[in-house]
Amino acid sequence: MQISHVISDVILAAIGIYVFFVYLSKLNLTSTVLWESFVLSVTAAAIFGAITFAGYPDANPISLFFQKLATITGGVGLVGATFALVSGSDLSKIACYTLLTIGFFLFALSEGFGLTKIGAYTPIVAMSLVVILAILGFTKGKTMVSVWLLIGVAFFALGTFRTQIFGKGDLTIDIFHYLTAGGILSLGMANRKKTA
């Protein structure tokens, strides 16, 4: 058992569940679905990650599946959800499901055809687009929304480049979990006014 990893994964999962129930579940259906394509995938990955670190390695493939799903399909959903938040208008069901279809298609290409670069580049492109949308939010007077989005991206960026910044030690795994938890909480805070 790797107790520090279990704890950090449980905390990450708890933050994901908290953000879902307190902030995201109260949004319009399309916004909830788009946010949750990322947040719930991360939460599921953390739950199965905690089980893996608790000494049950059979849970690891499930955790990895949800990690990749969050990275690719969730990344696309994150951009769509951010656009809806910043623009102040919920996306139509057609737009929502089109984005998710694109996300699942990219996921299928990555997993089915071994195109690993999709998994490497999707989060970078998604984070870049969220930053652009956050900056646009400042011009629309949505200062706190934009600030929280930028804080969230900062957490996710640090997590994405964790090995380059923090090295490859065991502690880096916990740092990644805590950074991801901080990013998810920031997404919840960005939606705070919509759910107040």
What are its keywords?
membrane; 196 residues; 0% strand; globular; transmembrane; mainly alpha
Describe this structure in words.
The protein is an all-alpha fold. The chain has helices at residues 3-22, 29-53, 60-87, 93-112, 116-139, 143-160, 162-166, 170-190, 192-195. Helix 1 (3-22) runs antiparallel to helix 2, helix 3 packs antiparallel against helix 4 (93-112) and helix 6 (143-160) runs antiparallel to helix 8 (170-190). The longest helix is centred in the middle third of the chain and has 28 residues, at 60-87. The termini are far apart. The model has no long low-confidence stretch (mean pLDDT 94).
Alpha-carbon Rg, integer: 16 Å
The dominant shape is globular
In DSSP terms (H or I, runs of 4 or more residues), the helix count works out at 9
Structural class: mainly alpha
Beta-strand portion reads: under 5%
Transmembrane segments: 6-25, 37-57, 69-87, 94-114, 120-138, 145-165, 171-190
Keywords: Membrane, Transmembrane, Transmembrane helix
Short description:
Helix content is 84%, strand content 0%.
Chain-wise SSE layout:
Elements: H1 3-22, H2 29-53, H3 60-87, H4 93-112, H5 116-139, H6 143-160, H7 162-166, H8 170-190, H9 192-195
Transmembrane segments: 6-25, 37-57, 69-87, 94-114, 120-138, 145-165, 171-190
Keywords: Membrane, Transmembrane, Transmembrane helix
